[in-house]
Every structure is written in C-alpha cells, then in structure tokens.
Write a structure and sequence with these properties.
Elements lengths: L1 H4 L7 H19 L4 H22 L4 H8 L12
Helix pairs in contact: 2-3
Length: about 80
C-alpha cells in the first residue's frame, strides 16, 4: 500500500498527479473497485488535486509583486467605501 502513495517530491505537481492517477487506476483494476487499496489511492489523488488547485489560487501575480514593492502606487491603493 505504501507504493501507491510514493511520489517524487521534486517532480512538478501536475506530473505527480498524473502518476498518482495511473497508480489509482492500476490499484482498482488489480484489487477491485471496492478494495481498500483502491479507496486509498483515489483519496490520495483527491488530496493532490486539492493541493494543486490551492496552489493555483494562491500564486502571486506580477501585479501583486508590484504592489508589494510599491505599496503607495496609485494602482495599488485600496479604498473602503
């Protein structure tokens, strides 16, 4: 079962996700769709997908970096109305 959760931490997240998808499909075809190995593999895939989505949501844009460097710039001002 530990083999299912092994991923290369240096590989890009999308590449890890593809590898985990293949492992999950293999676990389900080898052990049956109702097996615990299949469930664990798909849980790991769901966690990786959530992490990937979370990472995309929290990436800073060039505008965010610009505003961090120049908080007094007109473009970066935020007004409460």
């Amino acid at each position: 079962m530990s083999k299912l959760l092994e991923t290369n931490n240096t590989a890009p997240l999308e590449q890890q996700l593809q590898s985990m998808l293949e492992q999950a499909r293999s676990a389900c075809s080898n052990n049956g769709e109702l097996s615990s190995e299949c469930a664990v593999a798909w849980d790991a895939v769901e966690e990786m997908q959530a992490a990937s989505s979370d990472r995309r949501l929290h990436q800073k844009t060039n505008f965010d970096r610009y505003c961090e460097e120049r908080p007094d710039a007109l473009e970066c001002r935020i007004y409460d109305v």
